[in-house]
Amino acid sequence: MTATDRATVDLLDLIPRPAEVAHHDGRFVVDAQTVIRANRDGEHTARALAAALEPACGYQLRVGSLADSAPAKRIDLRLGVIAGGDEAYELTITSKGVEAVANATAGLVLACQTLRQLLPAAALGGGKVGAAWSLPCLTIRDRPAFAWRGMMLDLARHFMPVGFIERMIDLLALYKMNRLHLHLTDSQAWTMEIAAYPRLTQANHLAPAGQPARGTYAQRELRALVAYAAERNVVLVPEIEFPCHSDAALDAYPELLCVNHPARVGGPMDHKEYCAGRDDVVDFVRTVLREVTAVFPSPWIHIGGDEYYGTAWERCPDCQRRLRDEHLEDEDTPELRALFANAQGSPSKHLLYRSFMRRIAAEVVALGRAPILWDDLSWRGTFPPGSALMQWHYRGLFDWMQKAFTPEDPAADAAHAGHAAIAAPASHLYFDYFHGAALLRRLYAFDPLPADLDPARAPLILG
Q1: pLDDT at 207 over 70
Q2: Terminus of the chain with fewer CB atoms < 10 Å: N or C?
């Protein structure tokens, strides 16, 4: 894009900035005579646009078919063939009307969000305004730079009602973000109804005084949210945490702990983590994942994998048997021993951790989905087959769990190993670390593509 083109784009209050913009003379006025037209594939998107514009206009625009005779003033949503993928679109506004063309419905949804953003800010407030609005005449050709444009909600630590999540989906869609990562389980609470294990959510009404309220999402509520998000080109990605961050599940089903864990047999308390040695624990995980995947059609299932201790594993006969039977010590290396020498918990915890997470990841793959894991120093490029990595460390970060500095960019490490990665480094994308202008500066300065990544591997950085 030329400097002139960049300046042209900057004149528009659009987030994110479109790839190409050309301005034309004139404006198009949206009024009660304007008709939104689409074929059957785009009809739902047309009706959603009419509903979104109704508060601003004070009336709902009529929705018609592209086969109808052309009205004097129209907004046409049309599937066609343009450069780019499913989310690419071309938006043309003249004094007589608007035409959006895309390869797929997803592109039409994004074109409609651009159309909404081109209206004055007052038109997006949600309250009844009741006015005729005008749009600048222009042509926009746009396509996303990254396939994954997402945000995470921690619903286990901060339970939110369904209406709040719907509002978040609406805002993500407005800014063309297309993934909402739902952190559904943690030590504080397990928030998703699992029919096979009802005790997982039974304690959610017993939040200690002074702590955030807890709650449970029924599977029917989550299915409704999935559908609500899909209409707005947003995929809900569930996260179920293993092996740590799991007190809520292990309090409900302590038999999933190691057989000699203090919570089962008494003694000094230890960190609660799933037993990494027993097959019946994987049976539990398999059953849970079957219910999760039945609710969430997302191609990705996040299985956690961060901040574990492994001290109970050292004393557990089942874990030690697996360590021997799978010859896991043969996987150890001088580099791994150095990285985990001063770690909190067991200095050899990474061996059983890798074995356990590989088995959990295999269960996700067997269900026809791709597992996502938080990055961890243990992998060193040997990630579970078919998995994607979600980066939260970054080069030079002091890992407080392992008491070692992160030696590389984890997303680049995954991409070099041929695995997909999603960049979410705490240095830039953890909203509770920075505030105000400092947060915005860091957000806008962040480029998900690692500077040292081979360009041929760039497509593996999903976003």
Answers
A1: no
A2: N
CB-hemisphere CA count at 13 Å for 313? Answer: 27
10 band by pLDDT with thresholds 50, 70 and 90: low
Spot the catalytic one: 307, 314, 326, 331.
307
Q: For the domain that residue 135 is a member of, what is the CATH number? A: 3.30.379.10
245 with 129, same domain: the answer is no
Is the C-alpha dihedral spanning 341, 343, 346, 351 positive or negative? negative
65 and 169 both lie in a single domain: no
Beta-carbon contacts of 148 under 8 Å, excluding residues fewer than 6 positions away, are 178, 179, 422, 462, 463
Q: pTM of whole model > 0.70?
A: yes
User: In the annotation, is 20 catalytic?
Assistant: no
Q: Tell whether omega for the bond before 297 is within 30 degrees of 0, i.e. cis.
A: no
Q: How far apart are CA 429 and CA 181, in angstroms?
A: 14
Look at residue 2 in the predicted model and tell me its pLDDT.
Answer: 33
Q: Count structural domains, the chain.
A: 2
Asked whether 57 and 34 are in contact (CB, 8 A), the reply is no
Q: What is the edge-to-edge ordering of all strands in the sheet holding 62-65? A: 20-30, 133-142, 89-93, 97-102, 74-79, 35-38, 62-65
Domain that holds residue 301: 150-460
Determine contact, residues 282/363, Cβ cutoff 8 Å: yes
Model confidence pLDDT, tens digit, residues 379-426: 988 899 999 999 999 888 888 888 999 988 899 889 988 899 999 988
Both 185 and 108 in one domain: the answer is: no
**Shared domain check, 83 and 35:** yes
- Count of beta carbons in the 10 Å neighbourhood of residue 54: 14
